[in-house]
């Protein structure tokens, strides 16, 4: 028994002990643990977890399906996967930027919805030509998101209102007010959603025939990946990035060092809001072409998971958002082919979150193991 | 006018009991954004119990309701152990833990409701249908003009909530445990020095918040729609948190803010009906509690004083 626990400790230290790799190895460990936990749940439901996970990959266009409908192939599946991935990537970057400043932007969904709605009104329903409309969509979306994020930061700075509470309140206000406007003025009587935006304004080119395939080409994904690199650069290599990191680590120390805390709180929320705005337009004017009233996109909340998983490192977020999108996007196919409820995918995402929230503890535990081992070794020698 | 009071009360009291749970947890130093998830899981367990036993009672019997309440409290308490585990034992960030627990609760209840409906009850549905709760009218008191409405058409859970709230207030304000709990939120090291286990006090506080949130959840399930689905409870947990912050982490002012939310909501609905506005205007009314919260927070946040050690992980060595 004693030997066993020693073996366990030693293998844990060997696996996760290298502190330079911990920022990658611990999230990976959390993911593997949660996939195992998810597998146990699926087994318990009487299904084969390997097949279920394979279905997830097939549904995301990463593995070939046994058969395809006309004009479809693995490639079209993958482009529509990227279509879903784009807003997730933007939203997670938004969460990460706020987290750097020690702020918890749980209002990403509300900011997305507001940006999506205003952009739909201003650009989506206009008759502008594509070369004008598409950049304009991005700009209006960014500005709207930034304004809403900035409002939360300002309320925090000026009135000491907890950003979690104010952004949740704004989420609900946005949700209901926008639902009111859609239902009163812009509703499509058949789909019960808002009227579809013009093709010129849409950021995804839907059903574009290429060869013998019809693809959805998401233009935003290039921008999203570039943004991740840019955010990484801003956070790690600029004065602004350094200042918000200081504010996030210790407000008092930052103040003592002469950093204007309030201004940085507002600026980081504006930055975060702008990214949520981009998430909003790629979601409501890209992935979808209309807005469903009374519903907040779950993307904004899943983004918290994604960002946590990557330790709010923008490059890590590219990978973690990729993974979480596989789970959510592939779940539809998993449902149809192995009969598991598609809700199981959000359960798996939840479990991943749970384990990644324990990352600090795992790190601490590994350190304890190493110290214990060292102690035992020394005792053995003497 | 009567309807505003009746509906307002049936909304504010569950909110109030959940906010008390939040106060317990936060006064002990554990930030609890998980209220939302706790009430969801509590309501789910309660509703499941009610649906399972409903067959063995007569149509009009109220027994399933009480069984649901008990199971909801148990369910919320058990689920809250997860938050306690993450925050106290695993020393995770409490805000993150709370949000994680909410997301997991949402996913779990949505999945399990659908799954159980299909596999156990053989129906493709994403909700549990609960019976209709009886309503009590106190004979003499309800005849008082205007204020009599307070005693009219009460749900039985409103009485349960009042009793529980009184007990909760007594424990918090008058007992040794309550004192330790409040001290844990302000100066945990002093509590430790006095020989009390900080982790244990906080564990109990989080469990209380879980139980009370579960109670609130099942009350919402009965009063709002007489069924349970994962979408009915969305948002009230956060509203409760706003209420307790606005109530400055004390029980009586928190009751005030909960009543304000409740009456703002029922008053708004009443207005929409009275002025014969189209039903989409009720969406605008739904924003009332949130707008009121924001405005009030703008005016009162300056005077708020959160427990000093709120959100801090207790580290024995950090004295």
Explain what this protein looks like in three dimensions:
The complex is a heterodimer of chains A (382) and B (319). In chain A, helix 5 crosses helix 11 and helix 5 packs across helix 12. Chain A is built from 15 helices and 2 strands. Chain A folds into 2 domains: 70 residues, no CATH class; 267 residues, ABC transporter involved in vitamin B12 uptake, BtuC (Orthogonal Bundle), CATH 1.10.3470. Chain A has a two-stranded antiparallel ribbon with strand order 1-2. Helix content of chain A is 74%, strand content 3%. The model of chain A has no long low-confidence stretch (mean pLDDT 87). By secondary structure, chain B is mainly alpha-helical. Chain B has one domain. Helices cover 68% and strands 2% of the residues of chain B. Chain B has a two-stranded antiparallel sheet with strand order 1-2. The N and C termini of chain B lie far apart (56 Å). The chains are: A mainly alpha (382), B mainly alpha (319).
Please describe the structure with a list of short key phrases separated by commas or semicolons.
heterodimer; A: mainly alpha; ABC transporter involved in vitamin B12 uptake, BtuC; 2 domains; two-stranded antiparallel sheet; 74% helix; 3% strand; B: 319 residues; 68% helix
Per-chain topology:
The complex is a heterodimer of chains A (382) and B (319).
Chain A: H1 2-16, H2 22-44, H3 49-59, H4 74-100, H5 108-124, H6 130-159, H7 163-186, E1 204-210, E2 213-218, H8 220-237, H9 239-249, H10 251-256, H11 261-287, H12 299-309, H13 314-338, H14 344-357, H15 359-381
Antiparallel strand pairs in A: 1-2
Chain B: H1 2-27, H2 35-54, H3 63-89, H4 94-119, E1 127-129, H5 156-174, H6 176-186, H7 188-193, H8 198-225, E2 227-229, H9 236-246, H10 251-274, H11 281-286, H12 288-300
Helix pairs in contact in B: 1-5, 1-8, 1-9, 1-10, 2-3, 2-4, 2-8, 2-9, 3-4, 3-8, 5-6, 6-8, 9-10, 9-12, 10-12
């Amino acid at each position: 028994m004693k030997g066993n626990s020693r073996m366990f400790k030693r293998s844990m230290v060997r696996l996760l002990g290298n502190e330079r790799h911990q920022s990658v190895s611990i999230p990976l460990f959390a993911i593997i643990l949660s996939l195992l936990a998810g597998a146990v749940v699926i087994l318990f439901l009487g299904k084969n977890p390997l097949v279920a996970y394979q279905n997830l990959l097939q549904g995301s266009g990463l593995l070939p399906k046994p058969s395809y409908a006309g004009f479809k192939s693995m490639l079209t599946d993958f482009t529509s996967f990227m279509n879903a991935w784009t807003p997730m990537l933007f939203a997670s970057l938004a969460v990460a930027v706020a987290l750097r400043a020690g702020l918890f932007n749980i209002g990403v969904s509300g900011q997305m919805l507001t940006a999506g709605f205003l952009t739909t009104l201003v650009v989506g329903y206009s008759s502008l030509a594509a070369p004008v409309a598409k950049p304009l969509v991005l700009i209006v979306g960014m500005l709207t998101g930034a304004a809403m994020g900035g409002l939360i930061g300002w309320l925090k700075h000026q009135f000491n209102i907890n950003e979690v509470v104010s952004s949740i309140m704004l989420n609900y206000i946005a949700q209901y007010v926008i639902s009111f406007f859609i239902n009163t003025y812009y509703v499509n009587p058949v789909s019960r959603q808002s009227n579809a935006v013009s093709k010129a304004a849409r950021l995804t080119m839907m059903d574009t025939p290429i060869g013998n395939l019809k693809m959805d080409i998401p233009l935003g994904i290039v921008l999203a990946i570039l943004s991740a690199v840019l955010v990484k650069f801003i956070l790690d290599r600029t004065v602004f990035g350094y200042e918000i990191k200081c504010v996030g680590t210790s407000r008092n120390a930052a103040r003592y060092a002469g950093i204007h805390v309030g201004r940085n709180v507002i600026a980081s929320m504006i930055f975060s809001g702008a990214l949520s705005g981009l998430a909003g337009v790629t979601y409501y004017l890209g992935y979808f072409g209309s807005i469903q009233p009374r519903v907040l996109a779950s993307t904004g909340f899943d983004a918290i998971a994604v960002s946590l998983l990557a330790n709010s490192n923008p490059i890590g977020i590219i990978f973690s958002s990729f993974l979480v999108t596989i789970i959510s996007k592939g779940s539809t196919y998993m449902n149809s082919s192995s009969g598991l409820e598609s809700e199981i995918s959000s359960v798996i995402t939840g479990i991943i979150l749970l384990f990644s929230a324990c990352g600090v503890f795992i790190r601490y535990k590994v350190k304890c193991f190493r110290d214990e081992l060292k102690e035992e070794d020394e005792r053995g020698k003497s | 006018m009567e309807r505003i009071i009746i509906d307002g009360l049936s909304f504010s009291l569950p909110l109030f009991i959940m906010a008390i749970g939040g106060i317990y947890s936060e006064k002990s130093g554990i930030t609890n954004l998980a209220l939302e998830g706790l009430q969801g899981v509590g309501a789910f367990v309660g509703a499941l119990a009610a649906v399972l036993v409903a067959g063995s009672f007569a149509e009009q019997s109220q027994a399933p309701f009480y069984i649901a309440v008990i199971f909801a409290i148990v369910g919320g308490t058990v689920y809250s152990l997860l938050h306690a585990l993450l925050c106290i034992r695993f020393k995770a960030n409490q805000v993150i833990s709370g949000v994680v627990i909410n997301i997991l609760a949402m996913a779990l209840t949505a999945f399990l409701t659908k799954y159980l409906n299909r596999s156990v009850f053989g129906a493709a549905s994403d909700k549990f249908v609960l019976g209709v709760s009886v309503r009590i009218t106190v004979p003499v008191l309800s005849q008082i003009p205007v204020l009599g409405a307070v005693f009219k058409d009460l749900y039985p859970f409103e009485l349960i909530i009042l009793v529980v709230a009184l007990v909760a207030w007594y424990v918090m304000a008058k007992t040794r445990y309550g004192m330790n709990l409040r001290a844990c939120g302000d100066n945990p090291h002093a509590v430790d020095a006095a020989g009390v286990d900080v982790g244990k006090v906080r564990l109990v506080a989080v469990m209380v918040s879980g139980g009370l949130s579960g109670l609130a959840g099942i009350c919402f399930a009965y009063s709002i729609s007489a069924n349970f689905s994962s979408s009915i409870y969305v948002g009230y947990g956060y509203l409760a948190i706003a209420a307790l912050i606005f109530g400055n982490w004390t029980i009586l002012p928190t009751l005030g803010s909960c009543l304000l939310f409740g009456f703002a909501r029922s008053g708004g609905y009443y207005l929409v009906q009275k002025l014969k506005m189209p039903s989409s205007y009720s969406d605008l009314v739904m924003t009332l509690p949130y707008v009121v919260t924001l405005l009030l927070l703008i005016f009162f946040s300056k005077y708020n004083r959160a427990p000093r050690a709120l959100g801090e992980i207790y580290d024995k060595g950090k004295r």
